[in-house]
Structure formats: structure tokens, C-alpha cells
Design a protein that fits this description.
The chain is 41% helix and 20% strand. It is of the alpha+beta class. The longest helix has 53 residues, at 7-59. The relative contact order is 0.13.
């Protein structure tokens, strides 16, 4: 007598595997989304800490900071704030193609790895730390999720004079 699975048994197994695969895909996409959010928050946090530390070097008398890309002897506070932003986002010697990079050039946008995570922009962009200057402050805007709803964004002002 030949022992084999019936067609119904095989269909049940295929259906179960299909259901498990569908649940797994949904779970996996949720995990990747939360990983991108966490990575963006981490990049923002590191950028703020690094910026404050490098500004403090200047206040303590260093001639340069940010790996030599920031001249600490700017003629006025507004220009110094602009120079800090430029060192973070737009160093001509670090340019690749038509994309500007700053001293934290190894940080990539978690939502688009072809772009840097830190850029000189005034708007919210998903996965990006956008830096602009307001008077003597750096305005750091970060969007954590696609759509950039108010609950998924952050705005931090970093003083370059305090």
C-alpha cells in the first residue's frame, strides 16, 4: 500500500504557510520602520551633542573645531553660527557628485542611503536632520516618519553664543 498526502492535506499546509508568510512580511516592515525611526533619532541626538561639544572647544579658545572645518575666530556671532552650519552640512572638499556633506559625512539618511542624514535645509525631510541658522542659533529640524506629521518631527534650537 502506498502512503501519501491527500490533496486536501497539501492545500491546508500551503494555506498555513501563506498565512504565516503574510504575517511575517507585515511584522518585518514594522520592524524596519521602527529601526529607521530609531536611527534618525540617534543621528539627531549625536549631531546635537557633537555640535555643542565643538562649539565649546571654540569658546575655550581653540582656533579651529570640527576636524579643522570650523574657524573659531568669526568676526560676529551670526557669521559664526553660519560657519558652524556650513561645517556640519557643506564642506566643499567633502562633496561627492552634486551632494554636499559635512564633517559628519558618514551619517546616511535611513530612508534613502544615497543621501546624507545631515543637510542645510529649512524644511522637514524624512530621515534627515535639517540645519538652518536663525540669528545666532542653529535650528535643527528632524522628521522621523514618512509624511512628517507634527507628532513625527522635532525642532531644536542650539545656541552658538551661550
Amino acid at each position: 500500500m502506498i502512503k501519501a498526502f491527500t490533496l486536501i492535506e497539501l492545500l491546508v499546509v500551503v494555506a498555513i504557510i501563506g498565512i504565516l508568510a503574510a504575517v511575517g512580511v507585515v511584522s518585518f516592515s514594522g520592524f524596519t520602520e521602527s529601526a529607521k525611526v530609531s536611527a534618525t533619532k540617534q543621528i539627531q541626538s549625536q549631531t546635537i551633542k557633537y555640535t555643542k561639544a565643538e562649539i565649546m572647544k571654540c569658546k575655550l579658545g581653540a582656533a579651529t573645531a570640527m576636524s579643522g572645518y570650523l574657524n573659531c575666530t568669526a568676526s560676529n556671532p551670526g557669521l559664526f553660527a553660519f560657519n558652524v552650519m556650513q561645517a556640519l552640512t557643506n564642506v566643499s572638499s567633502l562633496r561627492v557628485g552634486n551632494i554636499d556633506y559635512g564633517v559628519l559625512k558618514d551619517s546616511k539618511n535611513p530612508y534613502d542611503n544615497s543621501l546624507p542624514a545631515i543637510r542645510s535645509r529649512a524644511d522637514y525631510e524624512v530621515g534627515q536632520v535639517s540645519i538652518s541658522v536663525i540669528d545666532t542659533n542653529l535650528q535643527i529640524k528632524t522628521c522621523y516618519r514618512s509624511g512628517c506629521a507634527a507628532a513625527d518631527t522635532s525642532l531644536v534650537l542650539v545656541s552658538t553664543t551661550d
